[in-house]
Amino acid sequence: MKPIIHPADYYRRLLGLQSHALKRLDESVAIVKLNRDQQVPEEDGTAGRWYYVIAGAVRRATIRPDGRRQILDLMLVRDFFFVGDSETEEPIEAVTEETVLAGYSAARLENLCERDRQFARELREITFQSLERSRRQLIVLGGVTTADKVSAFLLLLEKRYGDQRGDIRLPITRYDLAEYLAVSVETVCRAFSDLQQRGIISLIGIRMVRITDRGALEHQIGRKYPNAVSDTIAA
């Protein structure tokens, strides 16, 4: 089924409903809509651009010697990331057809930082968020088994996007998740089936997962995650 791509004004309104560090610049933001596998645009000769994910997902990836793609960094809704014009960096591409970004000129942000200390703190917050994303992804990839990695990924999604019932809509396909975890898609599917057979999760359709035994999911990775609902309230 072909996804619905709304007009830019729709995504501006959606951006207005989301809380983020560059909120004061929402009115002048550039809305960038991408199809799957389309590269996030670079700006030659400029200081680069910060992007905020309004919808969909993007990846920074490399091609391994065996020809398979390895996702090095995965940016989901409410994540910030930076794109410069360095030829040595891996390209950043859309993972889903309905990927929409808000773009902010890095040069403008730097100028604002020089005049506004509060804004400088907000920009530092974005940098810290990027570092925290890398830390969270290391936790996911640090699992011994694929079931460990899938469990950590589900708990990460629950913390950020889960509802009170523990329902999570997977933002990427199992093929994309396999590239992220550096395993085969068959191995990812077996891990989901294993967790479902053990009563830890329920699969509701292709892209919806319900966590039915959070304690067992945490035990799978050997650590606790903050509760998704309480974490949202605390924020």
TrEMBL record:
Molecular function terms, GO-annotated: DNA binding; DNA-binding transcription factor activity
SUPFAM superfamilies reported for this sequence: cAMP-binding domain-like, Winged helix' DNA-binding domain
PROSITE patterns the record matches: HTH_CRP_2
Organism: Bradyrhizobium japonicum
Pfam families to which the protein is assigned, alphabetical: HTH_Crp_2
Keyword DNA-binding among UniProt keywords: yes
Entry GO terms, CC: cytosol
Signal sequence, start to end: none
Keyword Ligase found: no
InterPro entries recorded: cNMP-bd_dom, cNMP-bd_dom_sf, Env_Response_Regulators, HTH_CRP, RmlC-like_jellyroll, WH-like_DNA-bd_sf, WH_DNA-bd_sf
The HTH crp-type domain, residue ranges: 144-215
The protein's name in its UniProt record: HTH crp-type domain-containing protein
Keywords from the UniProt entry: DNA-binding, Transcription, Transcription regulation
